[in-house]
Each structure stands twice: as C-alpha cells, then as structure tokens.
Amino acid sequence: MKTSSMRVAGLGTTIFAEMSALAVRTGAVNLGQGFPDTDGPQDVIDVAVEAMRSGANQYAPGIGVPALRQAVADHQHRWYGIELDPNTEVAATTGATEAIAAAILGLVDPGDEVVVLEPYYDSYVAVLEFAGGVRRPVTLRAPDFRLDLDALRAAVGPRTTMMLINSPHNPTGMVLNPEEREAIRDLAVEHDLVVVTDEVYEHLVFDGHAHVPLATLPGMRERTLTISSGGKSFSFTGWKVGWLSGPPELVRAAVGAKQFLTYTSGAPLQPAIAHALGHDAAYFEGFAATLQARRDQLCAGLNEVGFTTYVPEGTYFATTDIRPLGYEDGIEFCRALPEIAGVVAVPTQVFYDDEDAGRPLVRWAFCKQEPVIAEALRRLRVLSGSRQ
After folding, report:
1. Mean of the pLDDT values across residues 167-184?
2. Helix ranges restricted to H, 14-163
3. Do the domain assignments include residue 48?
4. In this predicted structure, what is the pLDDT of residue 388?
5. Is there a single domain that holds both residue 88 and residue 230?
6. What is the CATH number of the domain that holds 350?
7. What pLDDT, on a 0 to 100 scale, did the predictor assign at position 24?
8. Is the domain of 315 the same as that of 289?
9. What is the spatial distance between Cα 264 and Cα 332, in angstroms, rounded to a whole number?
C-alpha cells in the first residue's frame, strides 16, 4: 500500500512543530515558534464575538468578506499611498501561509525558476516543490544579512519568472534598504518578472527603520502581489486571517488556486481583523516600541550569556552565533538545549540551502512577556560555564 506521495515524503515535519512539541514535553521556555504569549486588543476580540453572536458563522465569500477587503484597501492607501479596488485587487486567505501557497500554485509552472532570499520561511520550499518550481536562493549572510546585489543579479536567468521577497525578513530581521529595493525593482522590470512580497511584519520595524512596500516603486504596482496578515500586527496568530493584494490578473491567479485549498475560512474573524486594521497610528507605533524593548532585553541577555548576537531591524526574532560558547551545529544545539538549560530555540540552518552559512546560527523569539524572557535568560546562564 502506498502511504504517501513523493512530494510529501521528503518534507518531514516542520521545525516549528518539532521544537514546540519539545518545549511541551520538557517544560522548557519556548523562544522557538513565533507566537505571542498574550492576546491582542480586547476591542478586536469583542468584534469577533459580536460577529459570532450576530450569525456570521457560515461560509464567507471565497475572496473574503467585503469589510475586510475594504479595510485592506484603506490600510494600503493610508500607510503607503497604494490605491486598490477592494472588489478585484484584494482577497482574504487563511493566513499569509495560504496566500504564499496560492500565489505560487497560481503563478508558477513546473520548471519556472523563482528567486528567493535564504534563510527562508520553510513553507516557501514546500510549496515551490508542490508547484514544480525551481528555487534560486540568494544567501543573506551574517553579520548584517544584507542583500548581495551581485548574487541577486546572478540568480536571475532566462527561466526566472518570479522573485519571492520577504521584508521585514524572517528569520534574520533584515529590512530592505533603498539600494536593495531599487536593485529588485530594476531586475523585475528588466526581466518582466512577477514579484511576490511577504510583508507580514510590516508594522514591526525598529530603530527608525522604515518598511517600504515594493509595490510603491515605479514599474512595480502592475507586477507585485503583496501578502500580509493580522496575526503578527495584532497578536492573533491562531486566527489565521491573511490577505493578498495587487493587480486583478495576479489576484485572480492566486484565488484560482486558493479556492481549492480552503475556499474560505474564519467568517466571524474577518470583520474583527477589518476593525483592527482601522486602528490609529498610535497602536502600531506603541506595539512596535513594546517589541523593540523586548528585543533589547533579549539581545542584551544573549550577549551576556556569551553568544554573538545580531540585533534585528524588525520582526519577532533575533539570531545568534553559537560558536563562542563552544558549539558548532545549530540543530544539535537546539535539540539538546531543553535538557541542558530548559529553553527552546530554532536552528536557522534548516532555512538555508547553503547549510554552511546557517550551521552555527540559532533564532530566538522575543514576542513574549518580559518575565518569560527574563526566565529564559536566567536558565541560559548555565551555558556560560562552557566558555573555557
């Protein structure tokens, strides 16, 4: 009896599930998977509850409820000056992960080459394999994880049809700078490429850095499919409400795939996220400031333990090099860490094709309460004895 397809057999279990299960089994502090340990705004929860009580419990339209599509259009205009038709240029998805899958399945044919920044969110690899696409990674390297523009240009060839760009970047925390954005734009226009942008951390940038959507650059509006979600901006990761936006033909292609994935989901949650998107700038600025303080707490503590710590410009995550503490392999380190110190982190090398570039790197989440971060750092001090 055949028990799995070839496309699934080689994927294994996502590292996030493995490390979170390890945290539960060992009672470790989980700084691995990127989910907050507090809920988002109460007023957003209240809207979801009221939607349930008011009967919004059956199938939503496949492209999303009108209120959410309008709220996404309003958000993109308010923050970035992007004009969208909510009826043809916006679609709701089951989180950003489904939006990414729908975009790739709807736009990539077998043999098409897709440029992707590595380390990458692991679903990129899985869905590209499902679609038969060929990934062309461009490696972001420590210590600054900047985009190597020569490597980017070299990755684009005659079979390239898409660039899949993630900024603010998970897991490195890099935020594209003006020179990098321009290089991406120039290549996309020159080679007539579709650009899919994963912008789920769009509001979580620090130290005065700015997130600028690639769709705002000249020549990019008509070729960019922009993806985001409510999970990271509002601390409702379990709701899985995401969206994609862009030119009608690109949205149609993605929805063509999405309709046979979930078709629709989260009917009472969509109006709640629509409400959340209407929050004023003070909410977003305050949330980013809170996360920046927790980033600083975690990074300072990791440095004190003895890691080499790379301070991120955005996202939920900080990256460390484990070699100063006498370790070499991130996977071995992370699997042993719960027993050694009672803490879970994620090995970054699983997000690289170039394993040597990621082997000594480990990702830590700071989207946790301050006492939780403090307890994790207290436990990690046991590692300091290994520096002899």
Report:
1. 98
2. 15-26, 42-53, 66-80, 95-107, 122-131, 149-155
3. no
4. 39
5. yes
6. 3.90.1150.10
7. 84
8. yes
9. 40
- Long-range CB contacts for residues 133-138, cutoff 8 Å, separation at least 24: 133/104, 133/108, 133/109, 133/162, 134/159, 135/353, 136/160, 137/352, 137/353, 137/354
What does residue 64 show for φ and ψ, rounded to 5 degrees?
110, 155
The domain that holds 236 is classified in CATH as: 3.40.640.10
Nearest C-alpha neighbor of 275 from the set 236, 304, 305, 332 = 236
Q: What is the DSSP track for 232-247?
A: HHHT-GGG--EEEES-
Q: Please give the share of the chain, as a percent, with pLDDT higher than 70.
A: 99
Q: Is 261 within a domain?
A: yes
- Within a domain: residue 195? yes
- For residue 120, the model assigns a pLDDT of 93
Convert the pLDDT of each residue in 287-307 to its tens digit: 999 999 999 999 999 999 999
Query: pLDDT, tens digit, for every residue of 186-236?
Result: 999 999 999 999 999 999 999 999 999 999 999 999 999 999 999 999 999
Q: How far is CA 259 from CA 22, 59, 129, 254, in A?
A: 35, 12, 20, 9
Within 10 A of 282 (CB to CB), how many other CB atoms are there?
Answer: 8
Question: Based on the domain organization, do 334 and 192 belong to the same domain?
Answer: no
Q: What is the pLDDT of residues 28-57, one digit of tens each?
A: 999 998 889 999 999 999 999 999 999 999
Q: Which residues contact 325 (CB under 8 A, 6 or more apart)?
A: 305, 306, 307, 383, 384, 386, 387
Domain of 23 in residue numbering reads as 6-40+282-383
Task: In whole angstroms, give the CA distance from residue 289 to residue 287.
Answer: 5
Instruction: State the residue for tokens 């078709």.
Output: 263
Domain count along the chain: 2
> 13 or 335, which is more confident?
335
Beta strands in 125-259 (DSSP E): 134-139, 160-166, 194-198, 224-229, 242-245
Same domain for 225 and 367?
no
